[in-house]
Design goal:
By secondary structure, the protein is mainly beta. The chain is built from one helix and eight strands; from the N terminus they run E-H-E-E-E-E-E-E-E. It has a five-stranded antiparallel β-sheet. Strands 4-5-8 form a three-stranded antiparallel β-sheet, with no helix packed on it. Strand 6 and strand 7 form a beta hairpin.
């Protein structure tokens, strides 16, 4: 369903900081955002185009137990969930992973085919990243 996901410049800074600094200044990614923007993702993105309210805020924590890593396949899987009460009344078209800094940094952004979010549906996003 995704039309293209990209790790942003801020995402690359998170990776470098958390990999090479013994005391990183950027927090790990642990939250997601959804929105209604349709602009093609770019490395210079710093936020979603049009983030929407999920449940009193415009971000939510990952599903408990995620992300998970597969060190044989060199991959990471992240799972995110919107229940029937969250982000309703929106035609969702974008998804982003963020960290929990005071001003969250956008790690990656994806655009996808419209999901009309209402109380009659729940949405699970599964993001799989590989180190190539």
């Amino acid at each position: 369903m995704a039309n293209g996901s990209i790790i942003t410049t801020d995402g690359k800074k998170i990776i470098l900081d958390r990999t090479f600094n013994s005391s990183p200044t950027r927090t790990a990614v642990s939250q997601f955002k959804v929105g209604t923007g349709t602009t093609t993702p770019a490395i210079t993105d710093t936020d979603l185009v049009t983030a929407v309210d999920i449940d009193g805020d415009n971000f939510k924590d990952f599903v408990s137990g995620y992300p998970t890593q597969d060190f044989t396949a060199l991959s990471n899987t992240t799972r995110c969930f919107l229940n029937s009460l969250e982000a309703n009344g929106n035609n969702l078209t974008e998804f982003g992973i963020v960290n929990s800094d005071g001003t969250p940094l956008l790690f990656s952004r994806t655009v996808f085919t419209t999901i009309s979010k209402s109380t009659s549906n729940e949405v699970t996003f599964v993001v799989k990243d590989w180190v190539l």
